[in-house]
Specification:
5-stranded mixed β-sheet; 401 residues; transmembrane; diguanylate cyclase; Alpha-Beta Plaits; EC 2.7.7.65; elongated; Nucleotide_cyclase; binds guanosine-5'-triphosphate; 3-stranded antiparallel β-sheet; alpha+beta
Length: 401
Amino acid sequence: MSSFLHGCRYFILPLLITLMALTVIQVTEASWQIWDEIIRQLPYWLLSIAAAMALQFNRSRLAYLALLLLVFYVSKQSSAQVFTTLNNYSDELFIGGSILISWFAFIKDRGLVSSHGILRALGIIIGLGLGFIWLEAVEHFQAAIIANSPVSMTYQALTLVPIMFCFVFVLFRAIWRANLVNTSILTTLGIWIFYYLQPDTFPLAVLLSSLAVIYLFTILIDSYFLAYRDELTGLASRRALYNLVLSLGRKYSVAMLDIDHFKKFNDTYGHDVGDQVLRLVAAKMARVSGGGKVFRYGGEEFTIVFPRKDAQTILDDLEDVRESIEDYRIVLREDKRQNKSNTQAKAKRSKSRNAKTKTVSVTISIGVAERLGGESFDQAMKRADLALYRAKKKGRNQICL
Ligand SMILES: Nc1nc2c(ncn2[C@@H]2O[C@H](COP(=O)(O)OP(=O)(O)OP(=O)(O)O)[C@@H](O)[C@H]2O)c(=O)[nH]1
């Protein structure tokens, strides 16, 4: 359930916000028509800024999309011969554009000026070319397809077949790999299809400006997560901890948590298994009750800050975390490369049917300190660290005040 809610953050919320924004624009149509000239200029500025920001923050797929949409907008606004000719192929461009947008959902962000850049330029030409090829094919074989199709097919429906596939693929991609960039690409495809089917509902300038704003938000929020989230565990990082310190009041408690004998664990099972265990242990810590805020301090050390709580009141919350980790049997896939001495280690082999998995468990030690009057955060942390040291000395897998 929690991973579902986590996915919602990246997937459902941006879509809802886009829908709400478009509804507001529609409802307030009368007022924004006064700003017609400004609105018509907006996509030039916003899409250019979005492309520049996307490049700066290495979100090259959004940069490509912003640039392509900018070219599209210029083609719609310009009366130059080359663009008016292009506008005669709007069906082909629509299908090619849909294929192109969908393709961006499946490739990685790579540098624009690199060998990947050349491949992507080729991809763009091929994607657009496919739109022409599909319509040529439909025109050529429509009689045969319509005659042999089990359901009644019109020419119009046939042209839309690749779009439906594109939308389903991109939708699944956005659900499967929920992140803001994939949701932005899905939104782009949705708006692209919407514009083709309902060209008069919203002016193109409004739709493209909305997309540019979505790209800008995606880049900003992504950068925030990059700066303040720990990549391995998904927890808030040490930088986020020191950000929180700025807003802490006078009363709080801080706990330092450390996985016991983690060096030995790494040596026994390998660094990759160690990483896997760090992620799972972090997920258990993230469920701490009592309003605790969890951070990865560094390595196998974690910090939990309890604003407005004294040390005695949080002991039960921390004990729950310690117990849940102690009781957690972590199932690992058998690593065929492991040598014999490793297999003699503490891991308990599961008696599962195919014996291809094994279970391991770890424990944690916890040191707690309550902020004393006049003390700085670093001083309180230092005392929590000393308490952690005592917990280790006393035999580990316990909490010390
Ligand atoms: N897999 C993995 N290991 C890490 C990571 N960060 C730190 N470590 C390992 O964590 C281990 C910490 O070891 P020590 O500080 O000696 O402590 P310990 O073995 O846990 O022993 P005690 O704390 O005394 O119980 C080192 O082997 C680090 O390599 C990481 O991100 N991934």
